[in-house]
From TrEMBL:
Organism, as annotated: Urochloa decumbens
Pathway participation: Protein modification; protein ubiquitination
SMART domains recorded: BTB (SM00225)
The protein's name: Uncharacterized protein
Pfam families for this protein: BACK_BPM_SPOP (PF24570), BTB (PF00651), MATH_2 (PF22486)
Top-rank lineage group of the source organism: Eukaryota
């Protein structure tokens, strides 16, 4: 017999790797004789010396009375590109920081301006129109007599290498543990315990049962007598119900059930689930009972919910009975007498929650 593995769906993804290189340089412009520059008027400037950072040449432009009339009370500072390396055309990407320095030569954070710009020609500088108010400079300790300093840090950003890699990917197949365990139950390979239920025998695996049910864990590995018994008799359950419970234990799902048998099977499986501490199975049974509820089953379902503490199921029954037509049909049927006989305590609660 040949076996095959699940088919995976191939796909792909791409990753682009850019190796970014940076080169940083700095230049300090020292302004001496500050008071002599105050009367030059807006738009007049002084240039710093030219400095180079990795090829391109730069200079600072200092406007003592602002670059335009609207900012005449401010000092304006420009960063200007003098020329590219070798006078060749192109674009240079630069991060820059222009800072006023204190008397120790350290940048003043409140007067530090940062920018990023691709420079392509000398006639397009980067400007800080309102770098610092002259009044603020004159009243600060940053003006040392007649001089102060401005520092410009320039970082050239270069993309050295770009590489694109294609990585194949695939879709992981869906979970199939339930299918493998279901096959294990069907094949009975390695089965080490047998249950006798309603005249039928069912073989199973102690480890699986113990992992899925705390009651089976106690019975099969605790101090109870079933620990060493190869055969265990179950007297309070029908064979079909026990078989369906085993299916759920191994596959975590309900087996295929005929439509006419769903209510009865769900009610019996709920009792079994409660006995063996299988809370997911109990919830699945509650859900099935609610979805298939009608006036002929609601009374028995309500009694079952009361007996096994299924509050969600009980609330669902009350909601169903709030319909006047449903309540009237149930009260007039034998089911209501059954409910009063089996769970008389539920009648008072029923009247409080359902009756107008």
């Amino acid at each position: 017999m040949m076996s095959s593995s699940p088919t995976s769906t191939a796909g792909g993804s791409t990753t682009t790797i850019a190796d970014i290189e940076t080169v940083t340089g700095w230049h300090v412009l020292r302004v001496d004789g500050y008071s002599k520059t105050k009367g030059v008027g807006s738009g007049a400037w002084l240039n710093s010396g030219i400095f180079s950072v990795d090829g391109p040449h730069w200079y600072l432009r200092y406007y003592p009375c602002g670059d335009i009339e609207e900012v005449a009370d401010w000092i304006s500072v420009y960063l200007c590109l003098h020329r590219l390396a070798g006078d060749e055309g192109g674009v240079v990407k630069a991060r820059f920081k222009i800072s006023l320095l204190d008397q120790t030569g350290e940048p003043v954070p409140s007067y530090t301006k940062i920018g990023f710009l691709p420079f392509s020609s000398p006639d397009k500088p980067w400007s800080f129109h309102k770098f610092i108010k002259r009044m603020d400079l004159e009243s600060s300790s940053y003006l040392n007599g007649e001089s102060f300093q401005i520092r410009c840090d320039v970082t050239i950003v270069k993309e050295v290498r770009e590489e694109t890699n294609t990585v194949e990917s695939f879709t992981v197949p869906p979970r199939d543990l339930h299918r493998h365990l279901g096959n294990l139950l069907a094949s009975q390979v390695g089965a080490d315990v047998t249950f006798e239920v309603g005249g039928e025998q069912f073989k199973a695996h102690r480890n699986v049962l113990a992992a899925r049910s705390p009651v089976f864990m106690a019975e099969l590995y605790g101090p109870m007598k079933e620990k060493t018994m190869p055969n265990i008799r179950v007297t309070d359950m029908e064979a079909g119900v026990f078989k369906a419970m085993l299916h759920c234990i191994y596959t975590d799902s309900l087996p295929e059930i005929d439509e006419d048998d769903k209510i009865g099977m769900a009610q019996h499986l709920l009792v079994a689930a409660d006995k063996y501490g299988m809370w997911r199975l109990r919830s699945m049974c509650e859900d099935m009972l609610l979805k298939h509820m009608d006036t002929s089953t609601v009374a028995t379902t309500l009694a079952l919910a009361e007996q096994h503490g299924c509050q969600w199921l009980k609330d669902g029954c009350f909601k169903f009975l709030r319909s006047p037509g449903n309540m009237k049909a149930v009260v007039e049927s034998d089911c209501f007498e059954y409910l009063k006989a089996i769970c008389p305590s539920i009648i008072d609660e029923l009247l409080v929650k359902v009756a107008p």
